[in-house]
Amino acid sequence: MKSLEKRMSDFKDFKKAQKNLKEFEKMMELVKNYPIKKSGPAPPSPPYTITDQCKYSFPRNI
Predict the structure, then answer these.
(1) What residues have CB less than 8 Å from 54, skipping those under 6 apart?
(2) CA 49/CA 6 separation, integer angstroms
(3) Are 43 and 58 a contacting pair, CB within 8 Å?
(4) What end-to-end distance do the CA atoms of the chain give, in Å?
(5) 23: closest CA among 31, 12, 35?
(6) At 28, which helix (H) or strand (E)?
(7) How does pLDDT run across 6-23, given as a tens digit for each residue?
(8) Residue 48: what pLDDT?
(9) Residue of 20, 23, 24, 18 whose CA lies nearest to 50
(10) What is the largest CA-CA distance in the chain?
(11) Beta carbons of 38 and 56 less than 8 angstroms apart
(12) I need a labelling partner for 32 at 20 to 30 A (CA). Which of 14, 22, 23, 48 fits?
């Protein structure tokens, strides 16, 4: 019986993680479409990578 409870709680954690992943993917979509600020060094020409996006889209002192 114990193992069933454990499996249920693992499943709940899994569902929660899946939900978080969906939220994260939504955020990444927003980051991808975020206009790139023209401050600091010029961003590399497209296609941008995600790390380039982060480098140029957010304040540097994270």
Answers:
(1) 31
(2) 40
(3) no
(4) 47
(5) 31
(6) helix 2-33
(7) 888 888 888 898 999 999
(8) 55
(9) 24
(10) 61
(11) no
(12) 14
The pair of structure tokens assigned to 26 is 């939504």
**Exposure string for 23-45, b = 16+ CB within 10 A, e = fewer:** eeeeeeeeeeeeeeeeeeeeeee
Q: Length of the chain, please? A: 62
Token pair, residue 23, equals 């939220």
CB of 37 within 8 A of CB of 56?
A: yes
Tens digits of per-residue pLDDT, 27-60? 888 888 777 666 666 655 666 555 655 665 555 5
